[in-house]
Amino acid sequence: MRTRKAPEERKAEIITAATSLVNQHGYKKVAMIDVANAIGVSKAALYVYFPTKDALFEAVVFQSLEAPLAAIKNASEASSNTTTKLTNMLVDSFSLALYKPKPMIELINSSRRYAQNILKDHTQQSLDLYTAVLNNAQQQGEISLPSQYLNTEEAAKLVLSCAHGAALGTNIGSPILPQKQMKTRITALIHSLIKGWN
Fold it and tell me: Which of 1, 34, 36, 133: disulfide with 43, CB 3.0–4.6 Å?
């Protein structure tokens, strides 16, 4: 006898199953019936929650992009100094954002038509969190930005730009660095920036 689940629990189960299948086989090879079979429901049951395959995989993309944002938020709320906080925000979010299975990256890249707004919104929310940390650091006297060149939002953009470069390496088109090397480079970068802003 099949267990009846609450709508939100069932929806989450569907998204998790679809994510797992995409990571294993790639978006193009996954059909709605595959997702239904993975969780033991009928295909018709999926359509109650997601009227089309695109709607389901938009939810998969959204969830995939939510995790790095949640990591940034959690790290920003930790009680630590600014250097540690910024380092953890970057490393934790990059670990989730950059080191996805190749099929998931392909899905995100191919779904620009509906992922574009999600990406834009997440980028702004991330920037706001980095800006808030730098604002607080400046108010506490932990850093002193050269105000003629940088305000805290511009400093946050600089941190993010430099960190992306640190994670991706120095050559144009180079692959993402191994995760341990990414963490080492970002840690060194943030220590240098914060020291320069003291």
Answer: 36
SS3 of residue 122 by DSSP: helix
pLDDT tens, position by position, 138-168:
999 999 998 888 899 999 999 999 998 888 8
Helix/strand number for the chain, H first, E second: 9, 0
189 with 109, same domain? yes
94: helix, coil or strand?
helix
Q: What percent of the chain has pLDDT over 70?
A: 93
Do 119 and 142 belong to one domain? yes
Q: Which domain holds residue 29?
A: 7-51
Q: In angstroms, rounded to a whole number, what is the distance separating the alpha carbons of residues 55 and 90? A: 30
Nearest to 21 by CA among 41, 3, 37: 37
**pTM value?**
0.81
User: Do residues 47 and 65 share a domain?
Assistant: no
The span from the CA of 10 to the CA of 16, in Å, is 10
